[in-house]
Amino acid sequence: MGRRVGISGNYAVAYAVKMADVDMIAAYPITPQTTIVEKLSEFVANGELDASYMNVESEHSAISACVGASLTGARVFTATSSQGLALMHEILFMASALRTPIVMANVNRALSAPLNIWNDHSDAMAQRDAGWIQLWVRSAQEAFDTTVEAFKIAEESRLPVMVNLDGFIVSHMYEPVELPDEEEVKKFIPSRPLENRISTKSAHAVGVVGPPEYYYEMKYQAIDAIEKSRVKIKEIDREFNSRFGKSYGEVEAYGMDGADAALIVMGSIFGSAKEVANSLREEGKKVGVISLRVFRPFPIQELRKAVEGIKAVGVVDRATTPGGVGNPLYNEIATALYDMPDRPAIQGFVAGLGGRDIRQDDFRLMYSATEKAAREGAGRCMYVGLRE
Amino acid sequence: MSKVFKSVKDVPKEELLAPGHRLCAGCAAGTAVRQILKASGRDTVVVSPTGCLEVSTSYFPQSAWRVPWVHVAFENAAAVASGISNALKTLQRKGKSVEKADVIAIGGDGGTFDIGLQSLSGALERGDDILYICYDNEAYMNTGIQRSSATPFGAATTTSPPGKRSIGQRTEKKDLVGIAIAHGIPYAATACPSYPFDLMNKVRRGLDVDGPALIHVLAPCPTGWRTDTSDSIELGKLAVLTGLWPLYEVVNGEVKLTVQVPRREPVTKYLKAQGRFRHLDEDTVKKIQEKADRLAKRFGMGPLREQQ
Q1: Do A208 and B96 touch (CB under 8 A)?
Q2: Which of A58, A68, A94 sits opposite B118 (nearest CB)?
Q3: pLDDT of residue A388
């Protein structure tokens, strides 16, 4: 039998990593990620987790050591935030192209300048083309469950997985979390099979020069792998459900029955968005909310299904693409819905940059602007909560 | 005690760096790698940062490596090697794998002295069980002979060209072994493939110590040094015989010269053989001779041979 404990989102990740019986952890401290790796060093120090813990001198070396370790067949984990993820940028592409199933928790934090330790999604969005599977969670429970799923998704797809949790809001909030029996977790994710790895029994060369005659095909293998991971993500979530009685899907739609307008969000603001939608429903407004749990591979079909019959969607971006057409999430959604017959109007919003609170009034404003878009078509991107 | 290589009879015939690689004719880095792998044997994983050696030995669909080999990026060979070494040990401890392997990182001077120095320092400080070997050809040869912080004083490179206001490279080579031993590591040494037994014995000792070891190998480069392709081994010898490249090792902090030079050659003999020093004036040559004299004094080498 499992147990119910009060822990933070970061500790929930650490417990999942411990139960996954990882072999190697390499990490560098950065707020708000640090309590994940502090907890993990404790587990290693007191013998609860038999793993090599590498205190590296930078995030660049953290991810580099993880790539090396993962190539030996070991199960590896790292965690970071913001500048740390940005410093890893170069190696993230190699991790996916070399097909290393690393699991990384990214505790979302704004990118400098100005220096800001608070939550937004600019760190992960800047890495969206690195070939990693990106999952997004909304609570400590989901942080635990998704991290457990992430190891299975990574190893079965042979791709690295980034589990994103909102800095402070999820990472430092203490919530009740159901922890399953460690043995049950181990049955769900047994040791990584020692195959396709570097071994003295064969002289494999990894990370070779790929000239123009070969680079394209090599790159395509990683593209194909992330496409194929769609099926794995679904299957693994289903299997998780049959074993642990919880399932998350790629897209969650809330209060969409008969809705005309819906907000599309990622991460912890789903909670506030739902609450405001409930009040608005009581006032007779036909609004709902859609939350994406998977950002890479982008859940096109699931999203299209969720917005069927909706007149307008409002996309809440928590990162920007300066000088671009839209912002990261908006652009994905606009592209995904473009050739849908009767596609909804798509209103863009930017909100909550650098930890700025998104208040109930802000949500009301976004819902009403989306309803307006349903009637009159979408307007320009709105910077919600920005002072004059 | 480590295995000792005294004569060719002690050296395995097996070549673990296959012929047909794309290194330039006369490249001493290739010679050094052959010697390194003869000393290490098959149970070795090699990690290379980006550089001449990496691009010349792994051009898909060919590979010159007969041992498992990994390249990830330019500045992280030490971190990748540490990750591999620690993971292999953990898999073994947990009973998941019985495979044992030595992990050797082999990087050029750019990947070691400059862009890779931070990750190297991290690996040395943590005490990870890796052998890091720098093959130092004294510039960024792979990208076309740009200066690095290992380029010697006075040398002409494409980014330290001599001119009206320039003597060539203005700075001295960093003391890599000094930096390494400042981390308190158990073993560090210099070597040169012109002295193969010395190099192979140092590789063996570096692998046999518990924890990190570093070997700094001078690797003459005909392309960048503007020398004849048949002169590389001779140039390596001259570097040692002039006192500019003392062969020594540092075992737990104790410094020992491993190849004595009873009577040193003048540095002009070494400099004149190389196009990259062709522009040097007397004053600069004098400074280089003084450097050799200082090194000779520090490591206990013999006096300068009397000039005829």
Answers
A1: no
A2: A58
A3: 86
B108: helix, strand or coil? strand
CA–CA separation, B49 and B112 (whole Å): 9
- Residue B197 inside a domain? The answer is yes
Which pLDDT does position B105 carry in this prediction? 98
Sorted by where each starts, the structural domains of chain A and their CATH numbers stand as 3-244 (3.40.50.970), 252-383 (3.40.50.920)
Q: Give per-residue pLDDT as tens, A205-223.
A: 999 999 999 999 999 999 9
With beta carbons under 8 A apart, name residues in chain B contacting A66. Answer: 83
Binding-face residues of A in 34-93 toward B, CB within 8 A:
50-52, 54-58, 60-62, 64-74, 76, 90-91
- Work out how many domains chain B is built from and give that number: 1
List, in sequence order, the alpha helices (H) in B182-231: 196-208, 222-225
Dihedral angle computed from the Cα positions of residues B71, B77, B80 and B85, in that order, rounded to the nearest 10 degrees: 110
Q: Do B80 and A67 form a contact (C-beta atoms < 8 A)?
A: yes
Tell me: pLDDT of A1 over 80: no
Cβ neighbours, 10 Å, residue A238: 12
State residue A254's pLDDT score: 98
Which residues of B fall within a CB distance of 8 Å from A22? none
Domain annotation covers residue B46: yes
Interchain proximity B63–A205, CB inside 8 Å: yes
Q: What is the pLDDT of residue A282?
A: 97
Cis geometry, peptide bond prior to residue B246 (ω within 30 degrees of 0): no
Helices (H) and strands (E) in chain A, counts: 12, 16
- Mutation for A interface: B23, B72, B120, most A CBs within 10 A: B72
At A67, is the pLDDT very low, low, confident or very high (cuts 50, 70, 90)?
Answer: very high
Interface confidence (ipTM) of the complex: 0.97
Q: What is the pLDDT of residue B36?
A: 98
Residue B90 is which amino acid? T
Kindly compute the dihedral angle of the four CA atoms of residues A299, A303, A306, A309, in this order, to the nearest 10 degrees.
-150
- Whether the full predicted model's pTM is greater than 0.80, yes or no, is yes
* Within-domain flag for B307: no
pLDDT at A208: 97
The token pair that represents A130 in the structure block: 């690195």
Does some domain include residue B305? Answer: no
Tell if the CB–CB gap between A203 and B61 is shorter than 8 Å: no
Pairwise CB contact (< 8 Å): A50 & B55:
no
* CATH assignment of the domain containing B160: 3.40.50.970
Angle of helix A59-71 versus helix A82-97 axis, rounded to 10: 30
Looking at residue B141, what is its pLDDT?
A: 97
Domain that holds residue B47: 8-299
**What is the residue type of A178?**
E
Q: pLDDT by residue (tens digit) across A323-353?
A: 999 999 999 999 999 999 999 999 999 999 9
Residue B19, C-beta contacts closer than 8 angstroms, at least 6 positions apart? B64
Instruction: Select from A72, A76, A207 the Cβ nearest to the Cβ of B88.
Output: A72
C-beta atoms of B89 and A52 within 8 A:
yes
Chain A window 195-254: which residues touch B at a Cβ cutoff of 8 Å?
Answer: 198-211, 214, 218
Token pair for residue A124? 């992960």
Q: For A98-150, how does the pLDDT look when each residue is reduced to its tens digit (9 = 90+)?
A: 999 999 999 999 999 999 999 999 999 999 999 999 999 999 999 999 999 99
Q: What is the pLDDT of residue B308?
A: 58
Q: Give the residue-averaged pLDDT of A258-273.
A: 98
Q: A245's torsion region: left (phi>0), alpha (psi -120 to 50) or beta? A: left
Determine the 3-state secondary structure of A237 from DSSP. Answer: helix
**Which stretches in chain B have pLDDT values below 70?**
308
Residue A13: closest CA among A139, A203, A147, A161: A147
